[in-house]
Amino acid sequence: MRAGRRWYRGDCHVHSLRSQGADQTPAQLVAAARAAGLDFIAVTEHNTAAAYDEWRALAGDDLLVIPGQEVVTGTGHWLALGLAPGQEVEWRYGVRDDAVHRHLDEVRRSGGLCVAAHPYAPYPSGTFMYPYEGFDAVEVWNGQWTSDLPWNADNEAALAEWGRTLAHDVHRGSWRPAIGNSDAHLEGQLGTPHTVALADEPSTPALLTALRTGRTWIAAATTIDLTFEAHTAVSSTPAGIGERLETGGEPVVVQLEVHGVPSGTVTFHTERGTTHRAPLPADGGPGVVEWRTSAAESPFVRAEIRHPTGHMAALTNPILLR
């Protein structure tokens, strides 16, 4: 794997046959991750982290395996990523027990990351009933699992709620990044979607920092790529995803370049909702969309890219404007 500061692709919600409903071995999933061109995965078995040693033995210089757990409580699921060796997270509680924050704190004290998982999953206990407060990120895009579609109504609902809370939270000075994962249980699901993270190196601490700070975007496939930046006429360097642009009151130019989404549609989103829309080339070649705004109009801008069917191809965390 090419190291150094760059964008790394990974899937942070992966199940082997040790989780209910899954049929793949760790070896099969690691092979699938390598075949898909991923740089990292997180093992998130249901309510256990005991099998991590087997996964770790399958990792290598070309693929990082992050220890984790899907915490399946009675009133919602969450991901504990970057667990310490031997650490497991308690799961026997629900929203009425007022216990979740104690366990979130335990994970964070060990350097881990806490993610609200598939908030609108349409099955018992899958719908997320806890407040987002205390979580580090929200899984707005969850994969196919029992569906034949990579983008479903529950993802649309999760994205809409995250977008609404983003506008409020940015004004408060604290916001939760979006991530996307496959929630792979069955063959062929891993990596659809996955999160692309800008990190200094392919290590667990560096990647968790990228996820925590929102230097990430989500892709439906490794064939999709993008660059999203904002600058002013006087700024020496542009700001990218998850970064803040000090505008000095100057007009802002937002530029998105997308590869791999034939005849797709780009939309830009601010605290005012959808503020700009533009088409992408029919051949899937590079398409560049520019738009002008200001920090006075909105303290952030983010992008969505959809296929002609309306299904999501990619989406970004915001660029912050001040």
From TrEMBL:
Listed Pfam families: PHP_C
Domain Polymerase/histidinol phosphatase N-terminal intervals: 10-75
Gene3D superfamilies, sorted: Metal-dependent hydrolases
SUPFAM superfamilies per record: PHP domain-like
Molecular function per GO: 5'-3' DNA exonuclease activity; 5'-3' RNA exonuclease activity
SMART domains: POLIIIAc
Matches recorded under NCBIfam families: CehA_McbA_metalo
This protein's name: Histidinol phosphatase
Highest classification ranks of the organism: Bacteria, Bacillati, Actinomycetota, Actinomycetes, Streptosporangiales
